[in-house]
Design brief:
Distance between the termini: 13 Å
Order of helices and strands: EHEHHEEEHHEEHHEEEHEH
CATH superfamily of the largest domain: HAD superfamily/HAD-like
Low-confidence stretches: none
Number of strands: 11
Structural class: alpha/beta
Largest sheet: 7 strands, mixed
Bound molecules: 1-O-phosphono-alpha-D-mannopyranose
CATH architecture of the largest domain: 3-Layer(aba) Sandwich
CATH class of the largest domain: Alpha Beta
């Protein structure tokens, strides 16, 4: 009997370029070729509105599972099956201390430029951007380069860790201009509790090194991890996976 396999994809850097829309060729391949063999799912660090902007409003029919904010907001076959809030977990008092400290820290930062929307309060996490989420694509790329040299986000995270030793939260750099903060354990492995009944869960992600937001799920014993460099690489690795599974089943049938 053939194995039941699901391919679970990160979004930014894996299915799309950061905060961009999915390319037609990869989209078609997943829908027409991959889906004829395996189930498919997505897990993004971003919230649902960004995820639908990048993958299309029809994402719920195109994927068997859709997980926004690491799976804190979860859909299966178009139906919302789960949602849990950071507010209920941490509480207003502690969250406000955290937000106030972050806003003060940001106000003391001198960067080449600053835009608006520095703190995004989401369902299952807080997203903090020292440069501001309202920056343009060009400014986003510029900040990413600047941050690689000056480690603005890493230093910010160190300051938060020092100040909030009592908070059981994880800091995760998943994109170019911000980092996510969520209760420890609410990383992308969180979504796996909804993915049941499969022999293999193949996870594809680009931020798979320690500190990246694909690290825990890539390393998890529950998944077969695939490290990719960009959407083109994802397509190549999918073609290899399909070939491998097909060859294996031909061999098994010949035994
Ligand atoms: O999906 C990866 C990350 O994408 C965005 O990051 P940035 O805007 O910094 O590139 C954010 O939505 C972030 O929450 C998410 O983890």
């Amino acid at each position: 009997m053939s194995k039941k396999i699901i391919c679970l994809f990160d979004v930014d850097g894996t299915l799309t370029m950061p905060q961009q829309c999915i390319d037609k060729s990869l989209d078609n391949y997943i829908q027409n070729t991959l889906r004829s063999k395996f189930d498919v799912a997505v897990v993004g660090g971003s919230d649902l509105s960004k995820l639908t902007r990048q993958l299309g409003e029809d994402v719920f029919t195109k994927y068997d599972y859709v997980f926004a904010e690491n799976g804190l907001v979860a859909y299966r076959k178009e139906k919302k099956i789960w949602s849990k809030t950071i507010l209920s977990e941490i509480g207003e008092e502690k969250l406000q201390d955290f937000i106030n400290f972050s806003l003060h820290y940001i106000s003391q930062l001198r960067l080449p430029f600053k835009r608006g929307n520095f703190i995004e309060f989401r369902t299952g996490m807080i997203n903090i951007s020292p440069v501001g989420r309202n920056c343009t694509i060009e400014e986003r790329n510029q900040f990413y380069e600047y941050d690689a040299k000056h480690h603005v986000r890493e230093k910010f995270i160190q300051a938060l860790k020092k100040e909030f030793t009592h908070l059981h939260v994880t800091y995760s750099i998943g994109g170019q201009i911000s980092f996510d903060v969520f209760p420890t354990g609410w990383d992308k492995t969180y979504c796996l509790k909804h993915v049941t009944g499969y022999n293999e869960i193949h996870f594809f992600g680009d931020k798979t090194r320690e500190g990246g937001n694909d690290y825990e799920i890539y390393e998890s014993d529950l998944t077969v991890g695939h490290r990719v460099t960009d959407p083109d690489d994802t397509l190549k690795q999918l073609e290899t996976l399909i070939k491998f599974v097909d060859e294996k089943s031909i061999k098994q049938n010949n035994i």
